[in-house]
Amino acid sequence: MKLKYKIINKKNLYSGFFSLNKYEFIHKKHDGEWTGTVGREVFSGAHVSTLLPYDPIKKEIILIQQFRAGVLSRYDENYLLEIVAGIIDEGENPEETAKRECFEETGCEVKKIHPIQSYFPAPGSSESYYHLYLGEIQAFNGERIRGLEKENEDILVKSFKIDEVREMLKEKKIINGLTLVALQWFFLEYYKG
Fold first, then answer.
1. Residues 107/147, Cβ–Cβ less than 8 Å
2. pTM of the full predicted structure?
3. What is the pLDDT of residue 77?
4. Active site (annotated) includes residue 151
């Protein structure tokens, strides 16, 4: 299969925890012709593994809350409700990352893992690519604080009954994209209770 685009120039605009690159490219149009030169800034993003922690015996889902810099300009209420997620380390596969991150962020070991979907969360502006899993875990009562001190993580971890999570979705209390994808899949395709 021939590529439907040609990169003319790539320039790094910023390098830090993430990077920002300016691409100049052309791409093939639907009629077979080529476009003129297009310029776009693209956020490097990350290769990420995500996991929805679920206890099939207690019928509970674990959700976490932590500070996220991406909401600074648009959201000033409580921290977002999220599922487990983390950048895939060099030499690690997505499934290993999902299991490692679940333990680091929740304190729960994954007993069984089910692949759900891999996808681009924001291909118009980011190179990020996510792998989404369901992880069967043993939930705990109450809440706890987790995270890696070396990464300045301060993660509030809580178990919720299935009906509580469904209600949070209906009330639009969950506004994190990857969490919405995971929970909608869970209720549409997996959970038949």
1. no
2. 0.88
3. 66
4. yes
